[in-house]
Structure formats: structure tokens, C-alpha cells
Write a structure and sequence with these properties.
heterodimer; A: alpha+beta; three-stranded antiparallel beta sheet; 4 helices; B: alpha+beta; 13-stranded mixed beta sheet; six-stranded mixed beta barrel; 15% strand; elongated
Chain lengths: 112, 879
Amino acid sequence: MSTERRDLFPGALEMMILQMLRRGPLHGYALAQQIRHNSDDLLQIEEGTLYPALQRLQRQGWVEAKWGMSAHNRKVRVYHVTPAGGKQLQREVSSFERMLAGIARVMRPARS
Amino acid sequence: MNRLRQFFRRSSLDRELDGEIAAHIQEMADELMESGMSREDGLLTARTRFGNRTAVFEQSREVWSFHTIESFFRDLRMGARALRRTPLFTAGAALTLALGIGASAAIFSLINAVLLRPLPFPQSDRIVMLWERPPERISTAALGPSRQHRNPTSSLNFVDWRDRTHSFAAMAAISRFPMGLSGYGSPREVESLQVSAAFFHVLGVPPLFGRIFDTTEDVPNGPRVVVLSYPLWQEQFGGERSIVGRDVLLHDDPYKVIGVMPEGFDLPADRAEIWVPIQITGRASASEGRYLRVLAKLKPGVSIAQAETDLIAAEHDIARERPAFNRDWSATVLTLYEQTTGDVSTALLLLFGAVMVVMLIASGNVANLLLMRSTHRRREIALRAALGASRARIVAQLLAESSLLSLSGGALGIAFAFLGLRAIVASLPALAVPRSEAVHIDARVLAFSLALSIFTTLLFGLAPALSFSRTTPGAALKENSTRATSGGGGRMRGLLVVSEVALSLILLIGAGLLSRSFRNEVGVNHGLRIDHILTLRMFFAPARYANDQRRARYVEEMLARVRSVPGVLSASSVDILPMLGTVSGSVFRRSDRPEPPEGYWPAADYVIVSPQYFSVMGIPLLRGRDFNERDTMSLEPSIIVNQAFADKFFPSENPLGKRLDLDWAIRHGVIVGMAASTRQTDLKVAPEPTIFLSQAQSPRYFGALVVRTALAPSAAARGVEDAIRTVDPDQAISHIESMEQVVSDSVARQRLESLLLAIFAVLALVLAAVGLYSVLAYSVALRTREIGVRMALGASPLQLVRGVVRDGFGLMLPGIAAGLAASLVLTRLLDSLLYGVTPFDPLTYAAVSLLLLFVGIFASWLPARRAAAVDPAGSLRAE
């Protein structure tokens, strides 16, 4: 794990949140744990940065929140993806893949 | 919608978010404790992993972006608090702005009503007036003071214009013809226009009810019909609709009322209460006398230039066919808008320029005050910057403060404008400025004032705000305020004062020139003795006195009765009073010389008077005799000429006994007297060669009685009116006023213009002096310590006073130099308004510069005195 901090590209965090939430509703802390776990601890994000991103997603109408209970029996807000959020995720994934393919093509000659 | 709802749920959203963040940290801590950490370590690690909780909270709520609105309101609240803390500064700045905005709003209201409002007719941009242009060789005061070469046309020419041009959709002739209305209430004279049937089509306005007359009625000896104006219908006929179809008496003749025009229907320069058919249709009903004004509507797609070319071509044909009356005459086309506003637009725009200058100076002063205040607030602002306020936030906060200032100044200014406008409109005689009756503060004026307030906010608020926000927090916080010398913005303050001095000098010079010009005009030797003269204008009802003999006798009888009224010294009549801006003119020739070729007869003013006219008006008779009772129709007409006439047409000859052929109702006469030259049309127009004829031998159907009284003219008015009524109880009289009033009204507009400009200039002077004073006073206050040191080292109070006054000169002299240079260029714009003084009048320039210098020295002396009074020991101890 590198100590060097790299910023995610704009929208990356939102895309990952949508991806996590598509598998099932989660509250904020659980969401942070999932992202950390799924990235094998490669992505070191300050967990607080989730909240502005969640507010943005709510404002766009891609995510909604309800009150629920955590594993430790604490009152928390549980987020789930709306249908519009699902479509947005598809759009973002395909443009992300195009971007990855583009970057890969640019990087290839440097390797040879 | 959703976001709006969120806005009002703001505080509950904040609570939810806060709770959610707390839960997140707790969850994490719980889990860490489950994996074996102590409670404290768990919480600490959880908080570290979470990051800056406040920042997260702020960023999350900013997502909903009410941020800007909220901070705007917060800025306003803070600004209001800051302004309340310094009431003197706030009152001074707001009052300064209110004066500037008030003056601007008042003048803008005038411009709005007179220049910006479109004329109240459909397609008014296609409505034009057609005039004849006399050849240059004809010099008569009838051309008017500004020599605009707009001459009425003859009915014969009007008929030819109408039939021979192709550019006009409709063309109407207009003639003013005051009529006595009787049979309803007390007899009164009504403003009336004789117009062609096309008049209403040109203006495109249908009647409120009833109908307008048509071409079958607008024929010679056609039916007597009349269309009423809305105000007359209301006042005289009580708004009764049944008046349509009934007869009213105009000059004793029954006229059938056929319609009423809607409210506000009026020609701005040709007000009327009734309209009757002019009944000129073809050549048979037409003649050569030029008295008609012509209104027309352009065909769609025809330009003014095309129409004028068309009209001039027709005029040239006419000149070829009838050279005696039309040789070398041309024609011109003006839009009705230009016709209405042409004379006043220069003056109004000039005044607008003046108030904008006042506004600039006011803004400069407020900017200055803000800059000074800023020095005191540097620490406050530095502190805010150190605590993380961005530059934009600081500028926004300072601008919010400025907007509060200028908006309250604007609101106060509107109140000033309201009062000022009432005074302006009240001081204008009704017709001096066309359309001024509609001057009021409307939405457009309010919008203008608001825009001006916002603009001034940026003007005076932005510079200090920007210079402020550049302050480096560290330096400002370390700075000891008592030791500050000139502080930031000292140079900008100096520059502001120099500009203020320059601007106020320009205004002062303009005002000085205009007031000198006005004094020249009023003080001009017009050759009349205007005190103790009562004037009464009337129309000698033609139906009852249709016959020339009877009309002549009627006027004589009236004068005889008036002369026997106690307190009346002498009385006479004149067809058109002097100083009304107009006079009749025609051509003549010396009977003892060979006849000039057709169209080359010389021109002169024609004035028709009764006996005693010259003595009533105080005009010396230089030779010969006055008209008297022996000048009757049965004898050869007598002529009196003025000195200018004799000098021009009888140089080195005695004109008495010489005969003239006239182009007038009478065709010839003999010169029996010569009077001194006097001004006739207005004060600016030099005396023109004039032919006086006697009312008894060449009676006109309208005129004014002029009565010289022993006491105040108003005291005799009642008795004179009664005397007239004993001759004819139905005689309508209009405009009963003193000759002094007539002369004063003739320059009412110039008086108001020069007065307003003087007020604005004095305002500018005071504001600039205050600006100079405050800059010097401030620098003295900042340098108290330095002054104390110098006094302790032996500087005398006089030296200190001199030092401060020298600083004042350092600001004034460049300002005066710049102002003089700018004036030399700018006053040229005044040229058309000046009378008897050049735009470069050295006396005005010198006097005004001296005045400014004295005021400036006074403004510097006040702070200088304070510097001299500094207590050295005290100032050094104060830290």
C-alpha cells in the first residue's frame, strides 16, 4: 500500500457508492466499510467524504434514505439506489470503461 | 420545489446530518472496541479515520447550496449592524447619495416624460410636420428666435402639396382660431383648431363616442360641426353624453356637437379644446397668406428624406408657377417627435449631464468616506481573513454594506426627487416645456433610480472593497493603528478629490455661463416700459362684428370705456403682444420706386395697433404722429414704421409722407410717423424692420388690450373687465396678466434651466469641498503624533497651518487645471443656449476658479486649525 495519496477522479466516489448500494441498502458506516473492504484497502478515503457525496446523490435523486437500525442497534439512515440512480450507474460505468480503454491504449506503446 | 421545501426544513436537515455523522463515528468505535481497543483509543481512531467533522458537515450542507442566499442575508445583517455603529458616517453618506440620486431622478423624470415617452398616437414615428423654408434674403422676426426656418404655408400651397406629392398617406392643415363659447355657463374663450378632416386619420385616434367629421363636411360653406375634447366635455358639459347632436354657440353661431375625443388626445404643441372643419378643399377656397401648419402621415416604407425630396420638388413647381409669392421658397419635413421635443432636448440633456456629474462627485465622497473607514477596520478584516474568510467573501460583505448605503440613499433620494419635481413643474408656465404636465415618478423612474443605486454601489464600493481584501492579515494585525501614517488608499483618496474638484469646476463654469447668458437676456434693452401695464387677450367675435367697420368700432368703443376706468392712465390694443414668440410678417414695396421683380419684394414685420399704443408701451415716437381718431377707413391708411425700418429702407431720407404698397388686407398707405425700435418676438431677437398699421383701418379679429395703470395692474383688472362687459357682456377674455408677467413667462424656461444648473453646481461645489475637507481632516487626525513631534521640535502653529493648507492646494490646483481644460472642450455644447456670452468667457472662468479656490482654502483651514491645536505632550503620550 502506497502512502502517497491520490485523488480520485471527479465522480468516482459517487460511482462506487452507487455500485455498493446496488447490491443492497446500507447505512453510512457500513458503506464506508464495504468500499474499504472491496478495494482490498487500496483506496484510503477519509470516511467523512462519503457524506457530501451522499448528499449530492440525494439531491440528484439517484439515492434515497430511510431511517433504520444498525448492527449495534443504533438509529441510522439507510441508503438505497433509486431506478434513476441505477440508470446513472450504467451510464457512468460505460463511460468509465471507455475511459479506461482509452488510457490503456495510450499507455501501451510506453511499455513496449 | 423539493429544494425550496428543503430550504425551510433546513434546521431539521442539519440535525439529521449531525446525528448521522455521530452515529457513524460511534459505530466505528464500537467495532474497534469489539476488536479489543480501549474505549478512548477506539473513539480517537474513529475520529481520525472520519476526518474533519466540521468540514464534512459544512460541505454536506453546502450541497443544498442555500449557502449564497444565506450568506447574503448574513452580510446584510452584518452590514446593517456595522452602519448602525457609526450613525454619523451612515447619515452623511446616505444623505450625500440621496442628494445625488434625488437630483438625477428628478431630471430623469423630466426626460422620461418629455423625451422618452412615445407620442400617444399609433405609428407616431410616421407622423410628420411639413413647413416652408423662406429664402435667406427674407429677414423677419416672424422666423422665430432660433431662425429654424419653419414657416407656415399658404392654403393654396397646401392644396398643391396634397395633390402633387406621393409620399404621404394623409395630409391635414391646421390653423389656430380661438373661439368664444357661449350659451353654456359664463362665456369663455376656448382653444380651438380648425383642421382638415384628414387630421384625425393622420393621428389615428377614433372618437370616444359620436363621430369625427368627414370630407363631405370639410368643404367650403359646409355644415357647422364641432368635436369636443374630453376635458372640455367634462368641465363645460358635465360629461353628458346627450350633448352629441345638440348645438353649442361658437361666436354666436350654432355648431352641432358630433363627437368627443378620448382623454389625453391632444397635439403636444397644439393644445385644443375643440376641433372644427377648416373647410379648405381646392384652389377655390385657398389663398396666398401663409398661416397654415401641416400635419401628415408618411406612407409605409417612405423615409423622411424621401418625403422631403418629394415635397421640395412640389414646392419648386409651385415657385415656377406662382413666383410672386414663392420664388426661392423651399420646404422641410420634421417628425412630430422632433417638432415637439427639439427645443428642450438640448437643455434637458445638459441638465442630465449636470446631475450625473453631481452623482459622480457624491459617489466619490462616499468612496472617500468608505476608504477612511476602512483604515479603522483593517484589523477586523484581517482577523476575518486569518480565520479563513475567502477574499470573495470579504468583498461580498463590504459590498453588502455599500448596497445598504446606496439603497437607503436611493429611497431618500426618491423622496427628494418627488419634492423637487413638484417645485420644478409648478415653476413652469404651462407651455414652456411640451408634455411637462405628464411629469411624474413612474415605474421607469423608479427602475432608473434603482439601477443608479446599484451602479453607484459598484462605483464607490468596489474600489475600497478590493483594496481592502488585498490586505495581508499578518501585517495589518501587527500594525499599530495610532502609528499609521497615510494608510492604504491615501493616493486613491487624493485622486478622488482632484477629480471632484475638476468636475465641480466644470459644472460651476457651465452654470456661470448660463446665468450670465440669462442675465444678458433679461437685462437686454427691449425698448419697452413694461411696468404698470395690464394685458387682456381676446378674440373679437366675428359673427357679431363680421363687418370690418363694426369690428373696428367695437374695439374703439371698448378702449373708450376702459380709458375712463379709474386708475387707468391710457389704453390701446395690439394684435399680437410682444414677447409671445411670434409676430406677423409680410412683404411691401416703396411706391416711389420701380416695382421689384415678382417674388423679390422686401419683407417686414406687421403689427396692428390702436391709438396710444406707443405711449402705453413707453415707445418714443421719434418723428411724425401717433394714430388717432381721424385715421378711419374712409381715408388713406396711415403707416408708422420703426427706426430699423427707416434705417434699412430710407437711409438718409425722411420717411414721413412716403407711400408703401402692402401685401396685406389693405394694399397701400402713407407713412405718418416713426417710432423707436423695440424687440417684438422675444428678448433675444433684435428689432426687425416693422410696419405698424391701425386697428381702425386694418382691423384684425383677435388682439390684446394693453392698459397703463396708475397702481398695480392687478388692482385695475376687475374694473377693466367690467368696462369691456358693458360694451359686450358675452366677450370672452383669456390671459389677464401684467406685461411684466408676459415678459417673465417668455424666459421661464431659461430661468429654470439656469437656476437648476446653478443649484446642481453649488451642490457639486459643496460636495467637493466636503471631500477636500474630509481628506485633509483625516490626514491630520492620522498624523497627530507626527504633528506633536514637530511641535515639540519647535514648529510654530502657523507653519503647521501652512503645511495643511499647502496639502489642500496640492489637491485643488491639479483639479482646477483639469477642470479648466475640460471646460474649454465641454462648454462648446452650451453654445446654442448662450446669449451674449461666448462659451470661453474669461471672466466666468476666472471668477469661478477663484470661488472654488476660496471655498477650498476654507475647507483646508478647518483641519489646519485642528492641527495647530494639537497638544504635543498629550499626542506623544497617547499610545
